[in-house]
Amino acid sequence: xxxxxxxxxxxxxxxxxxxxxxxxxxxxxxxxxxxxxxxxxxxxxxxxxxxxxxxxxxxxxxxxxxxxxxxxxxxxxxxxxxxxxxxxxxxxxxxxxxxxxxxxxxxxxxxxxxxxxxxxxxxxxxxxxxxxxxxxxxxxxxxxxxxxxxxxxxxxxxxxxxxxxxxxxxxxxxxxxxxxxxxxxxxxxxxxxxxxxx
Length: 198
Prior knowledge:
Blueprint (H helix, E strand, L loop, with lengths): L2 H26 L14 H4 L3 H11 L20 E2 L11 E4 L4 E4 L7 E3 L11 E6 L12 E5 L4 E12 L11 E6 L2 E12 L2
Parallel strand pairs: 5-8
Antiparallel strand pairs: 1-9, 2-3, 4-5, 6-7, 7-9, 8-9
């Protein structure tokens, strides 16, 4: 074999051997200890999609945390249904005002929101009265919605018709209504729909 061919063959064999050794070491290596940066990567880069990524995020977020009872849970909501009359009375669980970022329990720690149980339940016939602290009702505008998840697995959805200082004045006859009072501001809203929640 001519000397040139021998040198090329020996060089190729050496290069292939080195590549195989490097690959074996790389495959056997443990993954880096800090895997926090992969949360910012797109799911396709991680090889995860849809429900697999969701399950992974839930596992990492500590959903089995013993303090989970105190945190508001995301409630899966069904489609909004319009109403032609009042809903059956049911105990309200939470007060939500999406446009203000409000999501507080009734009768929870610190009494963030309370319902006058001597009057109608939110969504039932009549005007339900709810009071709260730190709700920022002055920022609320007509046409925005207020949601009240209830113990019957329905969320009553109200549309704001009036925001005023002091007590909201005029009530609308024949429609279930909600009066929310916080600080110096009162809101009057009427029941416009409901959705199932679980």
